## 1
Amino acid sequence: MDTKSLIIDIATTLFQQKGYKGTGLNEILKVCNITKGSLYHHFPNGKEELLIACLQSMEEAITTDIEDIFKRNQSTQEAIQAMIEKLATDFDREGTLTGYTFSSMVSEMASLSEPVRNACSNLYTKIQGIYSNKLVADGFSTEAAHSIALMMTASIEGGMMLCLTQKSSEPLKIISHVLPNLLKENR
């Protein structure tokens, strides 16, 4: 792994665990075993530029994973259940949702930085687009698909936050049973 990828990988984990403000540059430097000069070589604008790179890396990983799940499953209902079950299983195994949670970064930084807000918005837009496209393929109108995709995104993101605060996968398990029923009702 090259130095820039290492910095992004480690900083992403630290930002998810401790938040943006709770993670100092010195901690990133220490864990990465690099100098301040090396960090600024790769991220000349510093910590905020690094956060945006972390969010973009998460965007790629998250959307690739979601797209793969949605391609493997015939309907939106099956895909959403498979995705949520994967999240719940990961939570039960690891006690966290490290690869998927960026909501804490959104709430911490989106109002303070337009570039960070845009990076977060792009990720949510891509996730909703994946859901919406599958819903349209399932026969929903474009307008209904956009609305349902927004509701799905909000439900799953909220469910992940509840899992973390309750230290239980139960909120996601409930959502995995409720969302498919809502899809049936909205046909």
Note: Residues 51-185 form a domain with the Tetracycline Repressor; domain 2 fold (CATH 1.10.357.10).
## 2
Amino acid sequence: MTILLIGIGFLFLVLGITAIDTQSNGFFTQERIGQHGKSFLIYKLRTLHSKTNKTAFWGRMLRKTKLDELPQLLNILKGQMTFVGPRPDVLGYADELVGADRILLTLKPGVTGLASIKYRNEEQILSQQTNPQKYNDEVIWPDKVRINKWYAQNRTFVMDLQILFYTLFPISFDVDSFIAKRN
């Protein structure tokens, strides 16, 4: 509980700087798909300037450090998310899963997960593609589903601790090797 209170206090400090930098209230909300396919509003720190729609200096730092995800503590408090699990997706992805892939919808979405670690530099990967949407739909999204299905079938408390560790300390971690060793 103390960690949560410290996190919320830190959030208000960062939120204040964000609000000034983006000339907004500092928050960004977006509809995402959660457990059992129910939609909810995810909270993030705004990284784009409200008037220019360009990433501000502070916003780039927030994205790079993933601190823009900090308000998701509110989603956790509301029972919509957990610390570790598949990331909640925008409409048109998780809500359209079929067959065995729907196992992902049995879990609460997480602030971080194995797929989040593997694709921690997803924006950079997509920026290097000639057709980022196609690459996401044909390469990244199917791989995230594969990773998250494996997680849903094999998750443990110790694994969640490992995922949290590699999220907080972004040192080299090969997700595919991690999965292969446990199959």
Note: The first helix runs from residue 2 to 22.
